[in-house]
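Limitations
The structure tokens in this dataset are predictions for the assembled complex, not deposited experimental models. Users should treat interface geometry with appropriate caution, especially where small molecules or nucleic acid strands are included. An illustrative entry is reproduced here so readers can see what is and is not provided.
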Amino acid sequence: MTDTEKSQRHQKRMKRHKEVVDDKIQHADKDKGLLLVITGNGKGKSSSGFGMVARALGHNMRVGVVQFIKGAYSTGEEAFFRRFPDEVEYHVMGDGFTWDTQNLDQDIASAKKGWEVCKQLIDDPNIDVVLFDELNIVLKMRYLDTDLVLADIAKRAEMKHVIITGRGAPEAVIEAADTVSRIEDVKHAFRAGFRAQKGIEL
Amino acid sequence: MTDTEKSQRHQKRMKRHKEVVDDKIQHADKDKGLLLVITGNGKGKSSSGFGMVARALGHNMRVGVVQFIKGAYSTGEEAFFRRFPDEVEYHVMGDGFTWDTQNLDQDIASAKKGWEVCKQLIDDPNIDVVLFDELNIVLKMRYLDTDLVLADIAKRAEMKHVIITGRGAPEAVIEAADTVSRIEDVKHAFRAGFRAQKGIEL
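Predicted assembly:
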């Protein structure tokens, strides 16, 4: 095959691809406040949520964040997004709870307190996007009732986006969601002896 | 089982879990500039990369970004991170290339130009983390030679982190990486007729 033939074949294939994509785009024309779920065992769930926070801020939207699990650690994302108190309402719940506290009652109380904060963000008409980081873990542990949580989320304003991260998303959450991504852990530096790196995991 | 028994059982299980996790953490004690790859068909690859950018900024690190594909669109992440020119060196390459230009030579030229910018960021001692957004697509299309790209990345300073996103990561990239996540598309609002939403996909 000559270079010209190769180039023409490429052009033809790309044109067909573009037509397919354009057609799909034309038929996806509705807007809606989405429920997004990022789950699975791989690295990147929380960071994906925080990337969407950055994206939303780029569109001058206001964002609410509730971090359920990482209360015991200081994280880069918290330090960074707390720079913008007028744009991001940032909450860290708990005390690094679940396996660190080893106290079921305290964990449940922390989770319930956390959900009250989430509900305020869901109801706040000035907030466009909410991120409930690691909520799936809390639901999986049954610290909160998944049906009640989903009912509260369903009552949100039409254009409000809700992002839920954390491994082990319950089936009911996946069913209720508009978009679900499952992150597979193909390989992790941790298993090669490298600890969590600032700017990557922390 | 009484509530007390339940609580004790929980405490015991959590204690065991904590011991396992603590043990793993103790044995992962090395530091290194990681090569991270986020691939797969699901939603969240680029946003995960941008979440790590936010995280790095929270640790006062300096970041370089090269976006290979989205040149034709204005995105929230670009608008947001361009707010911090002293902390983020932000480049958008190409012209929304691949299926929109339908010109193989032009696409290859754009890709090569993009990689020159990447190499400068790799070599810049003032940059701690680089994000090459959608580079996998460029490699998959063979617009760049994967072996050459990996050789350039391998030459980086010891503590520099490199994040590569995009579907279709070549096998050689996965092999060279320290951490690889594959995002599975479980469900996408697009297929239910909802277009890309600001702050979520854009």
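Some entries come with short summary sentences. For this one: The mean pLDDT of chain A is 90.
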